[in-house]
Automatic annotation (TrEMBL):
It comes from Halomonas kalidii. One of its GO terms (molecular function) is acyltransferase activity. SUPFAM superfamilies: Acyl-CoA N-acyltransferases (Nat). Pfam families: Acetyltransf_1. It is an enzyme of class 2 (transferase). This is GNAT family N-acetyltransferase. Residues 1-149 form the N-acetyltransferase domain. Keywords: Acyltransferase, Transferase. The keyword Hydrolase does not apply. InterPro entries: Acyl_CoA_acyltransferase, GNAT_dom, YpeA/RimI_acetyltransf. The keyword Transport does not apply.
Amino acid sequence: MLRRLAADDLAALAALEQQAQPRSWSRDMLAGALAGADTRVLGIESQGRLVGHAIVARLPFEAELQALLVAPGHRRQGLAGELLGAVIEQARCWECERLLLEVRAGNEGAIALYRRAGFIEDGRRRGYYPPRVVGEGREDALLMSLPLDRC
Ligand SMILES: CC(C)(COP(=O)(O)OP(=O)(O)OC[C@H]1O[C@@H](n2cnc3c(N)ncnc32)[C@H](O)[C@@H]1OP(=O)(O)O)[C@@H](O)C(=O)NCCC(=O)NCCS
């Protein structure tokens, strides 16, 4: 089930971030996103447990996908695609012109997902991300966007 998350989902959201992501959002950042007037946190549940979420922020003319995460045991079942579809709907309802995102240039799975949803590549920020693993170099950010129609 896909739904908008609220303040009382914070514990489950923070647990999912910590379990599934090495550089996870802090509890304070997640609480800020849940409370923000210009952010939406969408979650997807399986058997009553939160297994994925997306965070989207409203900017003056555009929206930005700030996080998208599915728990490792639930990947390749279409859940991120569902979350992304709901994010796109939200951005359309805000009457945003484009949905923007940044992704690690080596994150092939996420890039394939975004391309399949119609995102195009707008550019690259060299060395934007800190190394994913100690000892590796910094990683480029790929800047992507999806033009939006009004809802
Ligand atoms: C990226 C991520 C959100 C994808 O979640 P998911 O639920 O597995 O994605 P979906 O099942 O909806 O995938 C839809 C399509 O995207 C593409 N895709 C997704 N993951 C992929 C992978 N690892 N390799 C190649 N293609 C992939 C495929 O085209 C897939 O369709 P298919 O399964 O029919 O081939 C998930 O792997 C994740 O949480 N990764 C860690 C966090 C992250 O990188 N987030 C993105 C930050 S920008």
